[in-house]
Design a protein that fits this description.
alpha/beta, Rossmann fold, 7-stranded mixed beta sheet, 9 helices, about 45% helix
Length: about 230
Amino acid sequence: MSRADLDKNPRDVAAMFDGVARRYDLTNTVLTAGQDRRWRTLTRAALGLQPGEKVLDLAAGTAVSTVELARSGAWCVAADFSIGMLRAGARREVPKVAADALALPFQDASFDAVTISFGLRNVADPDTALAELARVTRPGGRLVVCEFGRPTWAPFRAAYYLGLERILPAIAERVSSNPEAYSYLGESIRAWSPQPELALRIAKAGWGQVGWRNLAGGAVALHRARRV
């Protein structure tokens, strides 16, 4: 079993996700008390998808998020650089592509909408990934980033970070196929950009009309933007 460090070496990150792939969906549902399903639904709604539109779901993992997006009638492709995750989602009938977020294998302006859920934090260079997402999106197209955030209420924030340190690894030990990966998860969440900082990074990467909606008291946030 393996885990990545906060330098987020791409090979280490890919190997880590290959290791969690077998029970990834179950572990997510347990750790979030089922809220992962709601977050996927809210991501689809925030994108405002229309039938026939082309959508990129980056860092799609097992493609469970892509299936949710496809409920809109849009054509949706799942992209991830963990082959193990894509294989774990092989039964899900959506197109799948092995892809590096820092060099997406798509032409400019290929998509009407793009999204990445709980994946931007794991990329070695998130700003380049955001710029790549902008490159493959048509002018006026939409972006939604669903990612862990910084809880807004200090007492909850303290309890949340304590839970990441003590409770999350204990649950992962019982449920996950690679429990070590969830130590990285807690570390990466604590080190990640708070919502205003991420919004600024999105804007600098070529996106306009940037805003966000806090979920779970700010522990998760949906960032929305439009391609300039």
